[in-house]
Design a protein that fits this description.
Keywords: Membrane, Transmembrane, Transmembrane helix. Helices cover 12% and strands 41% of the residues. The protein is mainly beta.
Length: 225
C-alpha cells in the first residue's frame, strides 16, 4: 500500500475501501488476502475519516489505477470529548476554588465564651485577651485556648512570635467565629524561663475571604518550667 502522494489525482482513483456504504459496491478488489468491496470515490471525506494510503491495482485491460484506503481519524473523534472534559474540569476547579473559602484550621472546634459572651455588633471585631502561656522544658506543646468570638464578621488567624526577633513560633489556619483551637505546638523547645511573645491576630471577612480586615496584637509571655 502506497502512502498518499501528490501525483495520485482523483482521476486515477478507482474507488474507496475501508468504510461501510449502503450503496451497492462499484467493484471488488481481489488479492491474496481475499476480496474487498470497493465503493465509489468520495470527493469529500467525513469529519472522522482520513486517507491511510493507496493500493495500486489493474483492471482486466491492464490499466493501472488506485484504490484509496479510508480509515478513522481517532484524534478528530476524541478531540471534542477532550475539549469537553477540559471545560468541565476548568469549571469544576473554578467552582470549588470560588466556594472553598479560606484554609480553616483542622483542630478548631465549636467554642462558647464564658457566660455566653459574644460580639453583638457585626460592624466591630472583638479581639480576645490572652493570658500567659506555660509549657514544659524540652516540650513544644501548649494547652491554651485561641478562639474567635461568636458574632465576629471575620475569620481569625493566630501567629505567635518572639517579641524581640519577630521569629514565628506558631501559625494557625483560619478560625471561624464561634470556634477555638484548644491546644497547639510551637516549632521549637525552650530552656526554663520567661519569654516575651506577641500574638498577632490577622482577620479576613467571612463574606469575602480575600478581603483583609483590621489586625490585632496581644503581648504576653511563655513561661517554661
Amino acid at each position: 500500500m502506497k502512502e498518499e502522494e501528490e501525483d495520485i489525482t482523483p482521476q486515477k482513483v478507482a474507488g474507496d475501501i475501508g468504510y461501510s456504504c449502503k450503496k451497492k459496491p462499484e467493484a471488488v478488489l481481489m488479492g491474496k488476502a481475499g476480496e474487498a468491496p470497493v465503493s465509489s470515490f468520495r470527493a469529500k471525506l467525513g469529519y472522522s475519516q482520513k486517507v491511510l494510503g493507496y493500493i495500486p491495482c489493474e483492471d482486466e485491460e491492464g490499466t493501472l489505477s488506485y484504490v484509496r484506503v479510508i480509515g478513522r481519524s481517532w484524534l478528530k473523534i476524541l478531540l471534542p470529548l477532550i475539549i469537553l472534559l477540559g471545560l468541565i474540569g476548568g469549571l469544576l476547579w473554578w467552582y470549588f476554588n470560588q466556594n472553598s473559602g479560606p484554609d480553616l484550621d483542622d483542630s478548631a472546634i465549636a467554642y462558647q465564651m464564658p457566660n455566653g459572651l459574644k460580639n453583638e455588633d457585626p460592624s466591630q471585631i472583638m479581639i480576645p485577651g490572652l493570658s500567659g502561656f506555660t509549657m514544659e522544658e524540652g516540650d513544644t506543646h501548649i494547652e491554651h485556648v485561641l478562639y474567635n468570638p461568636e458574632g465576629n464578621p471575620c475569620y481569625f488567624k493566630y501567629r505567635v512570635m518572639l517579641r524581640d526577633t519577630q521569629e514565628v513560633l506558631y501559625e494557625s489556619g483560619f478560625v471561624k467565629p464561634g470556634t477555638a483551637i484548644m491546644e497547639f505546638d510551637l516549632n521549637q523547645t525552650f530552656e526554663p524561663g520567661a519569654y516575651d511573645v506577641t500574638v498577632l491576630v490577622e482577620t479576613t471577612s467571612v463574606d469575602d475571604p480575600e478581603a483583609e480586615m483590621n489586625r490585632g496584637a496581644v503581648n504576653t509571655t511563655i513561661t517554661v518550667e
